[in-house]
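Narrative of accomplishments. A recurring question from our advisory board has been how the design workflow behaves on a single, concrete structure rather than in aggregate. To address it, we present the structure tokens for one chain from the evaluation set, followed by the sequence designed for it. No filtering or post-editing was applied between the two.
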């Protein structure tokens, strides 16, 4: 078993967490630890300092706001799965995150800031047009999901900032989907992940946001597919535009050809279902 003798700073409140983050910007932030402990055990991570924010209850909770929903960064996937006000596609995403033990411990914020290309929830935040509230001792700011992931496992967070909450706009007219394709039906790292949201009026698509994960260094919007959808009835053939939006690679989990083929099929399948709805 790999262990660490790195100093651990335990934050018991948000104010203390932000102060410690300012003092120790190089520290590894830990909450649920479902990724970090795996990396540490596998010898893939060497800890120099650790900032533990798990005790910060201000970062928990799911609240309805005047404009939508606020999800605390320390909400677990079990919290998401069991809350009646979270979008159905987000609850479906939560059900795919590992086993029950991981869902009980893994956090929304951890999945977002780890910035793994295969992160289960990342494409869905793009599809839902989420905004991320981040903070430091200097103050709070909002970063759109479109601007948050800047490269492979890198984000727009400054060194002294922490992710505080996810904000979703309330729009009951959105028709959303989530689909994860892996080696197994459960407890699998994704080969392709789809998040989608469309809106129609009078049988015509007026809004479309589709995103894929595990097909690029960061989750990607399907700009060409979206353009092919908007302004006309739902057309499953828009899925063919995916070839202009993604450039997957071969790796240990899958091949470029598989990812490209599956991406097109799952988008087409969703659009075919939506096209049949009134």
């Amino acid at each position: 078993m790999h262990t660490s003798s790195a100093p651990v700073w335990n934050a018991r409140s948000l104010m203390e967490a932000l102060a410690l983050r300012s003092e120790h910007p190089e520290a590894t932030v830990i909450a649920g630890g479902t990724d970090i402990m795996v990396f540490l055990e596998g010898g893939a991570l060497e800890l120099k300092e650790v900032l533990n924010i798990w005790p910060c209850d201000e970062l928990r909770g799911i609240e309805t706001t005047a404009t939508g929903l606020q999800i605390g960064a320390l909400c677990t996937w079990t919290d998401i799965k069991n809350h009646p006000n979270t979008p159905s596609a987000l609850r479906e995403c939560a059900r795919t995150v590992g086993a029950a033990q991981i869902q009980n411990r893994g956090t929304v914020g951890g999945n977002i800031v780890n910035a793994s290309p295969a992160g289960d929830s990342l494409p869905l935040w793009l599809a839902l047009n989420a905004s991320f509230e981040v903070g430091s001792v200097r103050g709070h700011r909002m970063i759109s999901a479109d601007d948050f992931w800047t490269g492979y496992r890198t984000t727009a967070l400054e060194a002294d900032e922490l992710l505080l909450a996810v904000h979703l706009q309330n729009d009951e007219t959105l028709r959303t989907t989530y689909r994860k394709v892996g080696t197994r039906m459960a407890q699998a790292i994704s080969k392709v992940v789809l998040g989608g949201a469309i809106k129609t009026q009078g049988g015509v698509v007026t809004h479309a946001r589709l995103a894929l994960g595990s097909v690029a260094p960061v989750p990607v919007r399907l700009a060409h597919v979206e353009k092919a959808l908007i302004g006309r009835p739902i057309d499953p053939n828009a899925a063919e535009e995916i070839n202009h939006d993604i450039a997957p690679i071969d790796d240990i989990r899958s091949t470029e050809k598989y990812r490209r083929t599956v991406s097109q099929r799952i988008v087409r399948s969703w659009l075919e279902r939506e096209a049949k709805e009134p």
